[in-house]
């Protein structure tokens, strides 16, 4: 199963709106076939592993990180391919919450006499597909907050200068993170202050740019902003109030950016509506990169799932700008709880990965 998990990781960030899945075929103690799902519409991992195994799949064991599907989508059902190949045993890690799957594939295999084992390395397999599982269960994307701060929790000086808080290695790590998510979201304040490109610029040159979302309630962001001047201009989306969408689309026509109009909410636009629209467009994992008020609004609504925090060995003092806006909390018992999952040195900085522990 660890071999299958390694295969699955090869598809991370590339398979939306599908989960990433890996599979291996084992005959007489040897791996004779491997496969991973590369992108939506491409063959599933099990089918690729069976094809590589060929005749050796007959009587073999198939290990898969997610239970095999049993329905026709863009590709035929994996359960049928497994039966046609004559596999003797299927070992599955995660269960698939998609109502089109949800145990049906395994049931078909059992009914046909195939031995089935489930739950092997389930926790590791589940971690690979947190965005997919959340979208299936709630209609919302997995939401990660990314922020770079000084050791006293500041992201900019009192004047707003924030270039650069973190070191070069941390910034390269962020590009890798962007390449693995489906979309990145910022507010207009961040665009005005930092003028980011929001692209994945990897040293290897094989980064995949995420969808770039900019919250701009009134649709008045400057057309000179660099987010509008990228080679894949149609992957920039301005999210504005629905009563401003028509005017914004006309104004942004020369940039080829798209516009999403969503309902207004107190202080701006309805954030949950933005998130649901993203899932409808096939985006499962959203990275939010600022600013402070957007972070606070999301936290107050209990929408984030994870936090990636880069701590730079610097101090800016009490007059500098904090990364998180006001939450209005009065007692320590109201503090937002998180669970630290990983602490890693990245260059001269420290990267902390944590999960939000909402009740």
Task: Write a concise synopsis of the structure shown.
The chain is of the alpha/beta class.
Low-confidence regions: none
What does the radius of gyration come to? 23 Å
Strand count, sense and closure of the main sheet? 9 strands, mixed
Give the amount of beta strand, in percent. Answer: 25-35%
The largest sheet has its strands arranged as 11-10-9-8-14-6-15-18-17
Number of strands: 18
Total count of helical runs of at least 4 residues: 11
Globally, the shape reads: elongated
Order of helices and strands: HEEHEHEHEHHEEHEHEEHEEEHEHEEEE
**Could you estimate the helical fraction of the residues in percent?**
25-40%
Average pLDDT rating:
93
**What class would the helix/strand composition place it in?**
alpha/beta
How far is it from the N-terminal to the C-terminal residue, by CA? 32 Å
SSE layout:
Elements lengths: L1 H8 L12 E6 L2 E7 L8 H9 L7 E6 L11 H8 L3 E6 L9 H8 L3 E3 L4 H7 L1 H9 L3 E9 L3 E3 L11 H13 L2 E5 H7 L16 E5 L20 E6 L3 H8 L5 E5 L1 E2 L2 E2 L1 H10 L4 E4 L3 H9 L5 E7 L8 E2 L15 E9 L2 E8 L3
Parallel strand pairs: 3-4, 4-5, 6-14, 6-15, 8-9, 8-14, 9-10, 10-11
Antiparallel strand pairs: 1-2, 1-3, 7-16, 12-13, 15-18, 17-18
Helix pairs in contact: 3-4
Task: Please tag this protein with its features.
359 residues; alpha/beta; 9-stranded mixed beta sheet; 5-stranded mixed beta sheet; elongated
Give a verbal description of the structure:
This protein has 359 residues and is α/β, with parallel strands linked by helices. 27% of the residues lie in helices and 26% in strands. It is built from 11 helices and 18 strands. It has helices at 2-9, 45-53, 78-85, 104-111, 122-128, 130-138, 168-180, 188-194, 245-252, 271-280, 292-300, and strands spanning 22-27, 30-36, 61-66, 89-94, 115-117, 142-150, 154-156, 183-187, 211-215, 236-241, 258-262, 264-265, 268-269, 285-288, 306-312, 321-322, 338-346, 349-356. A 9-stranded mixed β-sheet has the order 11-10-9-8-14-6-15-18-17, sandwiched between helices. The protein has a 5-stranded mixed β-sheet with strand order 2-1-3-4-5. Helix 4 links the parallel strand 4 (89-94) and strand 5 (115-117). Helix 3 (78-85) runs parallel beside helix 4. The protein starts with a helix and ends with a strand. The model has no long low-confidence stretch (mean pLDDT 93).
């Amino acid at each position: 199963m660890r071999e299958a998990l390694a295969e699955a990781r090869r598809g991370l960030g590339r398979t939306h709106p599908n989960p990433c899945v890996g599979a291996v075929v084992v005959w007489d103690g040897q791996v004779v076939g491997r496969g991973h799902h590369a992108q939506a519409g491409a063959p599933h991992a099990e089918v690729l592993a069976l094809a590589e195994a060929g005749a050796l799949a007959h009587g073999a064991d198939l290990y898969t990180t997610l239970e095999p599907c049993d329905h026709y989508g863009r590709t035929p059902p994996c359960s049928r391919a497994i039966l046609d190949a004559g596999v003797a045993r299927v070992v599955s890690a995660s269960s698939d919450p998609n109502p089109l799957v949800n145990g049906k594939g395994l049931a078909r295999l059992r009914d046909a006499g195939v031995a089935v084992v489930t739950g092997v390395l389930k926790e590791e397999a589940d971690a690979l597909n947190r965005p997919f599982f959340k979208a299936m269960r709630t209609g919302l994307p997995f939401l990660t907050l990314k922020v770079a701060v000084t050791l006293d929790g500041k992201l900019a000086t009192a004047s707003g200068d924030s270039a650069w808080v973190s070191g070069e290695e941390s910034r390269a790590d962020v590009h890798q993170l962007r390449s693995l998510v489906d979309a990145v979201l910022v507010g207009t304040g961040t665009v005005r202050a930092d003028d980011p490109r929001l692209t994945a610029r990897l040293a290897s040159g094989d980064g995949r740019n995420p969808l770039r979302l900019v919250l701009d309630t009134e649709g008045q962001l400057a057309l000179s902003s660099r987010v509008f001047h990228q080679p894949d201009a149609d992957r920039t989306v301005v999210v504005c109030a629905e009563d401003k969408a028509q005017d914004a689309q006309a104004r942004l026509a020369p940039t080829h950016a798209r516009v999403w109009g969503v309902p207004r909410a107190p202080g701006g636009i309805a954030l949950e509506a933005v998130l649901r629209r993203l899932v409808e467009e096939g985006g499962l994992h959203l990275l939010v990169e600022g600013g402070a008020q957007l972070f606070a609004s999301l936290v107050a609504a209990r929408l984030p799932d994870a936090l990636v925090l880069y701590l730079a060995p610097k101090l800016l003092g009490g007059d500098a700008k904090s990364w998180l806006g006001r939450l209005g909390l009065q007692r320590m018992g109201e503090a937002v709880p998180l669970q630290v999952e990983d602490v890693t040195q990245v260059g001269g900085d420290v990267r902390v990965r944590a999960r939000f522990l909402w009740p």
